[in-house]
Amino acid sequence: MDLWQFNDKHVRITCLDGAVYEGIASHNSADYDEHEFGNYEEGLQLPGTLFYAGDIASVESLEDREDGPWGKFSEPFGRLEEESLFDEDGDPVIACEILDCEDPEHVLRMLRCIGYHLCPENAKEIPGKDKIIEQLRVLVKYSDDPMIADFAAKLIPALENEK
Known about the structure:
Structural class: alpha+beta
Number of strands: 5
């Protein structure tokens, strides 16, 4: 599979175990992955998550898809954001990395995921709230996108009041 063709593209990655992730991919050469991660294998990277070629069953470009309510994506957020927010170790470092990424689409997907899980009918305790609140404050102060800054500002009190 030629993974390079998916560099800087909206993609849907299906892993060998059937897990499906959507995002804007960056291509990593085998040389780069060996240098950075110690594994000589080509891969695709979504914010905070690396998929090695050997773990990928298929990659679908979403570039030709018409923009819907969530742009090229099928849902307001997905597995990538949920797994990052609810890391099994309770460490929100990947969620914070997504909130800090340069792509506003990924930031909005993470904000939507947080907001969804703060609604009473979907409530699930969010681990590492203090780190997430800190990152949201950074977005409020420095984001060039007023929609992102406003969304982040609204989530801060909701997270602070979460039980």
